[in-house]
Amino acid sequence: MVAGRRDGFGERLRRHREAAGLSQERLAERAGVSANAVGALERGERTRPYPDTVRRLADALGLDDLARAELAATLREDTRSAEPGAGAVPAGAELPGEPTPLIGRDSEIEMLSRLLEDGDARVLTLIGPGGAGKTRLALRVAHLVATEHPGSVAWVELAPVADPGLVPATIARAIGLDASGPDAAEAALRAWFRDRSSLLVVDNLEHLLDAVPGLLRLLDACPGIRLIATSRAPLGVRGEREFPVPPLAVPPADPRALDRDPADYAAVRLFVWQAQQRDPAFALTADRAAAIGAICRRLDGLPLALELVAARTRLLEPEELLGRLDNLMPLLVGGARDLPERQRTMRAAIAWSEELLDPAESALFRRMSVFAGGATLEAVIAVGGESPPDEMEVLDLLDVLAAQSLVTVSRSADATRYGMLEPIRQFARERLGDAGEEEPTRRHHARHFCDLAERAARELEGRSDQALWADRLESELDDLRAALDWTERAPDGAITGLRIATALWRFWEMRWHIDEGLARLATALARSRGLAPALRANALNAAGNLARDARAYELATAYHEECLRIRRDLGEVRGIAVSLNNLGVIARDREDAERTRELCQESLALFRQAGDLHGSAIALISLGLAAGLMGDTATGRSHLEESLELFRAEGDLWHTAWVSIYLADLVVADDDLPYARRLATEALEMHRQTRDAWGVSGAFTVLGKADRAEGSLASAGRRFLDALDAALEGRVERAIPPALDDLAGVLLQSRERQRAARLAGAADAWRAAGRLARVSTPAPDEVAHALRAPELSESWDEGTRLSRDQVLREAAEAVRAISAR
User: Which is nearest to 506 in space by CA: 552, 553, 532, 538?
Assistant: First the structure.
């Protein structure tokens, strides 16, 4: 390596730095490079910095255009005057060509280039599962370095090498050195690289980790070498910078969250590009976009899997391919003939990693495939059998699988989760079946998630940390579904399936999974005839509640009446009272106030007979609301106030808050606005304590109604906006349409008709998606009718297509417009 001249690039850089009053460390910090890199440039030890590095240094120094041009000219002169061939790698080390464009890796290339330029990271390990694109990314970076530093890059393919002792000779042969035997090869490599600045890239090192000490000896002897290794596991050596190669970005599942064109997602671009190599006429049309996005998500953005599935578009449309992804492995074959065998099928790519596992690691690898959405450590231990391994043993095994890129690790404030990319999971599931372990493993899986669902049900019913438990079930939803799927197939799964489906009803209600919950309970009930009557009655009660939520009143009545018959046969006084109250709630929804009063009075009498104050308070809610429905505000108020006192005495914060909202809503209609505001304000604070977003939204709604009753439309609009914000943030789908309806009503009164129509259209779209009834006031049907005028139809249609964020922005702008008047 040749030092720069005293008046060359390094000297000019030093003068500019000193003129700016900066130390090397301060300049490095401003430019986002290392102090070592700045020092090496000033000493002339590095004569070919990346153009981006020169630009960042010039920016940090604040150079004008003339100074920048002089600095660049000096660098070019230094480069031309460098000794020809200095540091060059022999011709035998020519880089492989780049066969395809590299799609979606711009940020990774930039990060790797900076790490190499800074000089602090002498060992960079690109880590990822088979098919992640490690080799392709390393090749792109190698070509970029070779472009800036001709003859300085050596590429070595290690996949065919089985013996770690042959690695030095393989490297020597790759760069054209004549050496046989490891000692002679190491000596030849040290002699060659000692005074040269070079980048050595070794591809596929994971099965040859015993060769790593020899590579480190080479780096110690030759300070000018930087090493890039691709591996499915870290090298585990000092000074190593691990660089996980992530999957490509995929579009979100919720089309409302799609904030950019599908073609902006790298996974979609790669899929389309690969499809076009088979059919140049293939295009990303609106009809194909949803299916292609879903395929990209199912394949977890894994490049090799995307390429192999995209090749099938020659025969099948994306929608047809999507329907076949549950049996993925047969699709993941047929890679280019010039690829190594392990990269021509996904199965071969994964098997390459599996072969490196010992029996215990391989057993856990297979068992992990039953998890559809990742797993906590507790769940991983649970599928280990009747005598599962202890926690530390499982952690050690997971550490190995994660290091081999066979298991993913994700961390949040609540828990660490372990999962698999979908192609790897399906491969492991095949291995699980081949080993005859699938049925017992799935049985343990279902048992674990049954226990979790029933524990969560107790917490949700008690309202203790309700939001946290609902979030926990949401995070486990894929596996709860997988457990239910298994119970529906397994001959002995009926009881477990009924228990899980029953335990989940409150969660399904809270998180707007009404249709799914009804379908699951119907399936479980169909298999439960002849099982324990009490268990069946609980399931019927759950199904009836969800059917009522779906406004399927005939079905809800049938479920609750059968439940009532069973409970009468069993003599369950409290259960009978609960069923009577539920039937009364259905009658109330159907505006049959007299039937509501009849049923709920009988329910109240039974609760009181059983000495059940909690149940009595619940029956009083129904009686109070029924009286209000009949226009008997005084009786309704009396019942609700009695219910409120019972809940307060019991210390039930959640029910106290909700009854306060019901009572406040009733007295708003009776024009007792100060009382309504006090109740709603107290309810708001209580619901914030219990973290009930639906309750928070309801409290703001009542406060908004009080403001509107006084004629303060701007204040009412702000309250309804707060209600919408709480519903959106808490993902309480059923509270979103009422908040939008209320806002639309205020906007209509304020003559903001276009915005009102957009928000009403958005409410209608949410309501249709969730089969939700129109429950907001005042006169929502009249509001909807007014906003469906022909001149507002375009605005209404626009509203039906708004995303969540767009709805919130539209509502906020509307409220600001009212307030500005």
Answer: 538
